[in-house]
Amino acid sequence: MPACRLKWLCVLAPLVIAGCGASTPDATPGAESSSDAASTKKPRVALIMKSLANEFFSTMAAGAESHQKEHSGEYELIVNGIKDERDLSRQVALVEEMVAAGVDAIVIAPADSRALVPALRRAQDAGVVVVNIDNRLDAEVLQQEDVSIPFVGPDNQAGAKKVGDYLATKLLKGDSVAVLEGIRTSFNGTQRRLGFEAAMKNASISIVDSQSAEWEMSIANTIAAAMLSEHPEIKAILAANDSMALGAVAAVKAADRAGKVQIVGFDNISAVQQAIRDGAILATADQHGDQLAVFGIEAALKLLADPSAVAVADDVETPVDLITAESLGE
Amino acid sequence: MKKLPIPRSLLQYAGLLGVLLLLVVVFSLASRNFLRAKTFTTIANQIPDLTCVAVGMTLVLIIGGIDLSVGAVLAVSSAVLGVLMTDYQWSLEAATGLCLLTGCLCGLFNGLVSVGMRVPSFIVTLGMLEIARGGAKLLTGSQTKYIGRPIEAIGEPLAGLAVSPAFLLSVSAVVVAQFVLTRTVFGRYCLAIGSNAEAVRMSGIRVAPYSISVFVISGLLAGVAGLIQTSRLSSADPNAAVGLELPAIAACVIGGTSLMGGRGNVVNSFLGVLIIRVLQTGLAHLGTTDAMKQVITGGVIVAAVLFDAIRRCWDDAGE
After folding, report:
1. Residues of chain B contacting residue A52, judged by C-beta atoms under 8 Å apart
2. Which of A77, A211, B136, B186 is deepest in the core (most CB within 10 A)?
């Protein structure tokens, strides 16, 4: 046994040493570049995503990578994601690792709108430019921690309202609908729910059931099936993302109500486009996922070029478009 | 013990059915539309994937192993199916063949490494969980593959029968596995391996082929579950069935399968699956919040297991 352990040590030790060696030289020029040599050194931007297993985020990361290739003279990009969208501690660790690696800017899609704030404050204190994308950090916590981090991204509430308004044109006053929410602690989930609620209220349509399906297709399928049998009067299901919308499609079909219950989603993932063409889903919202990280990176580069702007950095709103069978047909 | 095998198992069925009935009564009283035929056919069409996985899990637990990779194997099998049918336009039959083969191969790997190399199956299948999940994401490029019509027949209710072929398939898996377990040499050896593998070896029976076969069966059934879930959702989702191993293990343990091996019953595991799914559907009918759903589900699992433990103590004292 001891011999066995020694062998492992022999294998691992050089790797560890090599790892340390690789990160130290990088860290020093990185720190310099933020002070005076910014124009001569390419800035290093770290993109920290939620789960790269999720199509939405992998598309976002791919968009950022191709943008970097086109602008390879202007900046370097390091993309990292977490395995599970709920793995907060890993994302906090990633922020710390990127700061330690001496990056100049962090563009982050926080897995939680509150828990990430302290780590990002420490990053800012270390002189790193931080830009928030996708999931907006909680204003109250930002205030408590006394930091300001610009948010670059779409207005999810307005996007969800667009989808809801379009759905309302296909329904009648007084109809009943149900909502499949995202994870309740996520800011986007809440914003989309509020957008759906506002649209339904304007059209005098009542929401008879609203539950979280944790963004997942299979859970959404189970919950939507229960909603349909508990509330047979439901005329439509509003899902806060497309995976849940696809789960609802299967539930509606299983309940023999295909065509009688309208379904809307959010995100415009590729799988849902086929469902929209087939008429199984009425509409979704496209927030240009492939461009979201790019918008964030551009904002970060602007701030790096003009450090005096960091303190007063404003939020940037990016577009959200309604996707229907007609718009796909074009 | 030898004298009373039948009454004992009957008693256990009755206990689990009692819990199930209690849940149905509670939800029927508490919600408006729970007590309807439609609710139960819906549940019937939603349980086949978990049922298949739980059958495999029961067998693995019986031989004293554990298979944590079932959810991930389900996802990778489903990914194979989805990619072949959408990107390569394979027929359903051919793609299904490869989907099931994927499940078998994952199970074979689990079996060969854990049994052949005598590494605890906990860690081998944990490794397989990561490999298979990563494989599913690689194959699909982390994108949900929408297949649509060609795959839907398996998950759709049969005309005039209200239940789907998938449901019938999963129930026959339960029946066959229970028969194999109680009425065949293979099943007897599995139980014996789980109670005392050394004794089995001493009596001149080679343990490895039986144990490895059980892991292959578990992999195959995870592949079948992948086919079933893909069919029900018309799409192959690389994130499908994350954490499915937990309800599967819970279903087995609720059904009285021992985590130490040597004791288990497939029909009881099926009742365990029913308890878990009825609970899930009932809570969705009530529109309970997420947090409460988790608290209640956990509570019922513990209560069901406690109930079984008390009954067993009482049984043993009576003898």
Report:
1. 142
2. B136
Contact B237, A243 (CB under 8 A): yes
Chain A: nearest CA to B114, how far in angstroms? 20
Touching check for A207 and chain B: CB below 8 Å? no
Tokens found for residue A313: 């950095």
The tens digit of pLDDT for each residue in B93-128 reads 999 999 999 999 999 999 999 999 999 999 999 999
Question: How far is the C-alpha of A200 from the C-alpha of A176, rounded, in Å?
Answer: 9
- Give me the residue from B32, B45, B142 closest to A53, CB to CB: B142
**DSSP H stretches of helix in chain A:** 2-35, 55-70, 88-100, 117-125, 139-144, 156-168, 187-202, 217-230, 242-254, 270-277, 289-305, 325-329
Alpha carbons B220 and A184: distance in angstroms, whole number: 36
**A221 near B CB under 8 A:** yes
- Give the Cβ contact number of residue B236 at 10 Å: 32
Return the CATH architecture of domain B14-24+35-318.
Orthogonal Bundle (1.10)
Kindly report the pTM of this predicted structure: 0.78
Q: Are B200 and B193 in contact (CB under 8 A)?
A: yes
- A-B Cβ pairs (cutoff 8 Å, strict): 110
Q: Where are the domains of chain B?
A: 14-24+35-318
Contacts of A292 (CB under 8 A, 6+ apart): A60, A63, A109, A133, A134, A153, A154, A318
Residue A309: which residues within 8 A CB-CB, separation 6 or more? A302, A303
Domains and CATH numbers, chain A: 41-149+289-317 (3.40.50.2300), 156-286 (3.40.50.2300)
Helix or strand (DSSP H, E) at A77: strand A76-82
Averaged pLDDT, A302-320? 81
CB atoms A221 and B238 under 8 Å? no
Distance between CA A194 and CA A188 in Å, rounded? 10
Q: How far apart are CA B39 and CA B48, in angstroms?
A: 15
Q: Do B42 and A227 touch (CB under 8 A)?
A: no
Which residues from chain B sit within 8 angstroms of residue A54, using beta carbons?
A: 142, 239
CA distance B289 to chain A (A): 7
Cβ–Cβ gap B142/A54 under 8 Å: yes
* Chain A residue with Cα closest to B240: A218
pLDDT for residue A30 is more than 60? no
Judged by CB atoms closer than 8 Å, whether chains meet at B42 and A225 is answered as yes
Distance from the Cα of A311 to chain B's closest Cα (Å) equals: 38
- DSSP letter for B268, please: H
Q: Give the closest of A209, A229, A232 to B42, CB-based.
A: A229
When scoring A87, A181, A218 by the number of chain B Cβ atoms within 10 A, the one with the most, hence best to mutate, is A218
Contact A48, A85 (CB under 8 A): no
Residues shown for chain A: 330
Can you tell me the ipTM of this complex? 0.75
Q: Which residues of chain A from 242 to 261 reach within 8 Å of chain B, CB to CB?
A: 243, 246-247, 249-250, 253-255
| pLDDT score at A9 | 43
